[in-house]
Amino acid sequence: QVQLVESGGGLVQAGDSLRLSCAASGRTSSTVSMAWFRQAPGVDRVFVAGIRWDGGRTRYADSVKGRFTISRDNAQNTMYLQMNSLKPEDTAVYYCAASSDYGSPGYVHNALSSFDNWGQGIRVTVSS
Predict the structure, then answer these.
(1) DSSP per-residue letters across 51-117
(2) 82/18 Cα distance (integer angstroms)
C-alpha cells in the first residue's frame, strides 16, 4: 500500500496561484504513475493531470492545459500541482492518486479505475 497526503489547498481569488503537494510513503517502489483528480459538489471525480514516475511524461485535462503544471520529485516521493490563473470553476476537492499499473511504455493513465491508492483530498476554493 502507498499512503498519500495532500497539502497546499485553500481559499484564493480568481487569477491567483496555488501549489498542491502530495507526499507518498509506504510501498512507493510499486508506483508507476501519479495523478491529480478533482471533484466539485454534485459531480463525478475527474482527471486533472498525471505524470509517469519513470521518464516524467505528463498528461492534462483540456480544462487546465496551459494553466496547471504537474511535476514530481522522485527522491522526495512527492508530486506537485502548480495551479496558475485559477478560475471559480477550479473550485473542488483535489485528490492525489497513485497507480501501480505499468500499461504501455510512457502511457499516463487518466481513468479512476487505474489508480489503486488515494489521498484524503484537499479543498481548493476560488472566489470570483
Answers:
(1) EETTT--EEE-TTTTTTEEEEEEGGGTEEEEEE-S--GGG-EEEEEEEE----STT-----GGG--E
(2) 6
Say if CB 96 and CB 112 are below 8 A apart. no
Is the model's pLDDT at 53 over the cut of 90?
Answer: no
The predicted-structure confidence for 68-95, as pLDDT tens digits, reads as follows 999 999 899 999 999 999 999 999 999 9
Can you tell me the distance from the alpha carbon of 72 to that of 38, in angstroms, rounded to the nearest whole number?
18
Q: What are φ and ψ of residue 28, in 5° steps? A: -70, -20
SS3 category, 30: helix
